[in-house]
Structure formats: structure tokens, C-alpha cells
Amino acid sequence: MPKQSIKRRFNNIFRSNFLIRQKYHRNVIICFFIIVLAYPLLHLIQTGQFIIDHYFETEDINDMIKLDMNVWKNNNSFLTRKIPRYIHQIWISSLENKQMDERFRLASESCITLHPNYNYTLWTHKKILIWLENEYPWFLSVYKSYRYDMQRIDAMKYLLLFHFGGIYVDLDLKCLTNDLITAMIPKNQRENEPDIVLHIGTEGISANTDVILAKQYHPFFKLAISRLKAANRWFYLYHLTIILSAGPTYLYGIYRKYPLKANFYFIPNDLLWGKLFHGVGGATWYGNDTLIILFLIQNNIVLWIILFIVIICLFYVFHLLKNRKESIR
């Protein structure tokens, strides 16, 4: 056999083996990236599915909650029941044995002083653990599994208002008047008080949870409690995790889903602030990403520019992958 033919055959074999190894390595790399990206992709899909289910009206409300709603709707004794005169406040930073800030202590004392005829409880981490163990042991594991104290605080607002009814007030709010519950309800609704009193967030995508009034055992908060476990997930940013897992935006999703809203009342912000409450410096839970998110919300132009840049980058990456695929062929 001529040397040139042997050399050609050897080159063909070498090239064939090289291509096989190259294809093998490429497949290994592809499999590696598929495995690495599979979990985040699955998590992203599940998160998207949760958001769609939570914020759009569907028929997936628990049958028992539907039954509770029908009983509540058709029972005059529930409709004429008063909101319990009970103030709830929560201090869960005691989880780290931190002392309450003096401004919060003074604000809390203002509410106690102005409401001698109201029941009052400052719920600490230890009190909540004991109470949950006795009343809602199934929720104890969810409470402990939250990443952040703010999630625990928001979740406990719903459990306490469902179990006891009354009014929840954030600790950074100073009370300016006595008998807050009566003062917050219009005169023409005081004989038959609203079931729930909220105030919608200024951004339009949340139901603020700093002040909430509720009648005892209301099915609205039963629905809110029933979905807390499913909502206990990471939403990629600290701020989003807080507001979507148990915070204001989470509650707004419950409000959208809940069908019986005829006996809800939304207190105007101009009555709430300056006449009933005075803020003593809140937003203590805000993180660095919160400031960025608020900046983007307040500056729509910046948001659109970032969205445009992201779209351009995606098209550029797609173009590179397409060219690379054609070059390999």
C-alpha cells in the first residue's frame, strides 16, 4: 500500500476520532449545563405558576373555605357582629434578643394609653411559639422555616386577626385618637360594621398590612392562611420574597381571589395619616434591592430602558448561538 494512501487513511481515522471525541465532550458539556440549569428552570416555572394561580381569579379555592364563605354570607349574626376591640402588635426582632427601639416603644404606649377599654397584646417570638404550639401546631414548621423575620410578622398578622379579630397596628405607628376602630369606620356603617378594613397601597399592587381591621374567624383570612405554606418560597430578591410570600402583595392576591368583598371597607389615606396615626419612621425591613425597586417604579423611563437593553442582549445572544450552530454544520 503506498505511503500516501496510508497517511491519508491515518488522517481520516484521526479526524474521525477527533470529531467523535469533540462531539462526546460537547454532549457532556450540554448535559452538564442541562443538569445545572434544570433546577433553577423548574423553580422559575413553579414560581411563575404560583404567581398566575395566586393573582388571577380561579376556582381553586378550598371547598371548606367556600362553605365558610356561604355560611358567613347567609348568617345575620356574623354580619351584625362587631369587630373585637383588641389591638395586636408584633415584635419578632426579639428572635435575636434585640431591645425594641425607643421610638417604637413610645408609639406602642400611645396606643395602649388611648385605649384603656381595648384588649392589647404585644406578640413576641416566644409568645407566638407557645400560642402556635397550642392553637395552630400545623403552622409551626412554616413559621420557623421563613427566611426573614418580616415574613413571620406578616404571616402572624393573618393568623391573629383570624383567631381573635380586632385591629393590627405596626409598631412604627403612633396612635393619635382613642377608639381607633370606631374612628376608622364611617358613621353610616357603625351599626353594621364592615367585615374587613384595609387600605390599598399607592402603587396599586398591594393591600397595605400596616393597619388591618377584621371580624373574628372571617373566611378572608382563612383563605390567606391556607395559602401561606404554598407561598413560602424564594422569589429571587429579598424585597420580592417579603412582599410575595406573605406581605402586602401576597394579601392583594388573596383580595383579588376572594369573591365576597361587598362588606369590605377601604379607609382613605388622608384620614389614616395625620388624623388617626403618625409614622415614627418605618420601612425598617427595607433592603438594598428595595431602594432599587422603588427607584425603578418611580422612574418608568429607567425601567423601559433596562427592559429594552435586556431584549437587545437576548437577541444578540440568540444571534451568536444561531451563527455558531451554522458554523458547526
Which key phrases capture this entry?
60% helix, six-stranded mixed beta sheet, 329 residues, alpha/beta, two-stranded antiparallel sheet
Strand content: 5-15%
Number of helices: 15
Give a count of the beta strands, DSSP E runs of length 2 or more. Answer: 8
The SSE string, one letter per element, is: HHHEHEHHHEEHEEHHHHEHEHH
Helix content: 55-70%
Oligomer: single chain
- N-end to C-end Cα span: 33 Å
Report mean pLDDT, rounded to a whole number: 80
- Give the spatial strand order of the biggest sheet: 2-1-3-6-5-7
Class by SSE composition: alpha/beta
Question: What's the alpha carbon Rg, rounded to whole Å?
Answer: 28 Å
- Globular, elongated, flat, extended or rod-shaped: what is the shape? globular
Plain-language structure description:
The protein is an alpha/beta fold. Helix content is 60%, strand content 12%. The protein has 15 helices and 8 strands. The protein has helices spanning 3-55, 63-74, 76-79, 102-114, 125-135, 137-145, 149-164, 180-184, 219-226, 228-231, 238-245, 248-257, 269-272, 288-298, 300-328; strands at 86-91, 119-124, 166-169, 173-175, 196-200, 207-214, 264-266, 277-279. A 6-stranded mixed β-sheet has the order 2-1-3-6-5-7, with helices on both faces. Strands 4-8 form a two-stranded antiparallel ribbon. Helix 4 (102-114) links the parallel strand 1 (86-91) and strand 2. The longest helix is centred in the N-terminal third of the chain and has 53 residues, at 3-55. The two termini are 33 Å apart. The mean pLDDT is 80.
